[in-house]
Sequence to fold (306 residues):
Amino acid sequence: MVRPALTRRSGGAALVLAMLIAALAAVVAIAVAAEQQRWLSEVANRRDQVQAQALALAGVQWSRQIMQDDARNSTIDHMGEPWAFPLPRTPLENGSIEGGIEDAQGRFNVNNLATDNALGKEERARLARLFANRGIAPRTLEAIAATLLPVVAGDSASTIGAQPSAQSLPPGLRPVRVAELAAARGVNARDVAQIMPFTVALPATTALNVNTARPEVLAAALVGLSADGLATLVAERARKPFTTVADFRARLPSGASIPDETTLSVGSSYFLVSVRARQGETLAQARALLRRDGREWPIVVWQTLE
Fold:
């Protein structure tokens, strides 16, 4: 005969076990649901990331079309053309896109320093004036020039997709990016940050476009240009872009002169593109350097996607 107390203890143990099993089942169910929710969230985020990156890359392709159309309609490049106006933030379904195109030849090309000719010497003089205007020690320019000594060619991301050019850098020299200069011996990272808005590193030697150069760049490209003269020159350029270098020279303020007209231009081949896209909560940014010669679809020299 089973004792009543033993029966009650057995029944209580069974009840406790049943409650533990139910609790365990609930915990497992919650964990599975949470994992599923996390997986769904990751899938959604990944989907948004892919779509945002696709939008950013599409913006680069759109920029190529804009530059090709511009080449068909004009032989000069200036800030009044459609490509020069930034694309404002434009809403899209569950996202947005914005971006802009900048004339890379509106900046000083540090890779011009690698050439031992009139262009190289003039670029050094320009950069020396820019450094002086920005309060940067002359030794920084010497350290940058030393960075461009002959090395084994073909080891730079700057040359990805680049095509041979009549103005290519001499054999044995590789183009460097401006950001790389911060790691060079004798170069202060803060100084490089100061000059980055006014300099660029292109895979070929280039002339400075006086129609698109920033005021600080124009001031360093000329000799004897006062602050008032610079303001007048920039206003005159906005009123009527320069059609030739001779036109630019003719409209210079009194006292200003051009050291070497062969290093200037009114048209450009290289353009910087920046596109920012948002899809859901995900952001993507594409940057690219385009090379255009007016006869074919612009080439992507290099491209980054973040």
